[in-house]
Amino acid sequence: MANGNAIPSRAVVLRLKAIQAYDRWRLRRLKRKHPGLHIDPSASTNLAAARYDLAPGAVLRIGAGVVTDRLEGALHFYVESGAEMVIGERTWLRTDVGAVHMVAFAGARMTIGEEGFMNGCHVSCKSELTTGRRVWIGMGSRVFDSDQHDMDADRPEEAEPVTIGDYCWVASDVTVLRGVTIGEHSIVGTRSLVTSNIPAHTLAFGSPARARGTVGDRSSGR
Length: 222
Fold this sequence. Notes:
By secondary structure, the protein is mostly beta strands. It contains one helix and 22 strands. It has one helix at 10-33, and strands spanning 37-39, 51-54, 59-62, 67-68, 75-79, 84-87, 92-94, 100-104, 109-112, 117-119, 122-125, 128-131, 136-137, 142-144, 162-164, 169-170, 175-176, 181-182, 187-188, 193-194, 202-206, 209-214.
């Protein structure tokens, strides 16, 4: 009968240590290749499996205790020249349910707050994108701070900062567009389109998303 608390065999332990040693070597090599890449020593060695597209002059800072899955290329960091991306401490970049794409275009700044949960999602900025403490962004969701392309010759692309406050939960298949602020302790329901600000402690959903109820204190939730 299988024992869920069985102690791993010596062979398994040695194999895991060898994998970690190999990944540490890969991370050292990545940091030599990209001078703007800063990874806290306590972050997961699984970060070696991520794909790094960092232009000269780009900065990517990955904080203490950041974790991800060891799936080659499923986590993608794309940071252009003059841009800065900061991944806060103890954030989980979960890729086993879908790829995580994090994009900062030239001169932009992306800040992911502490204890964040990026779950198979896509976040992109051309100006500024900020998430607070313990923000969850669910599977298939997308957050953009710009139109991504020009509308036509007379209407050029626009970019405006996006802010998601502390303890918010953006559920699955949600799209958040430029200029939006989502107040702290709010929840945005599945398949919503967020085109305007959402007050703090609000349950919102729909296309476009509208306030449908209230949300209490989420700081102690899991």
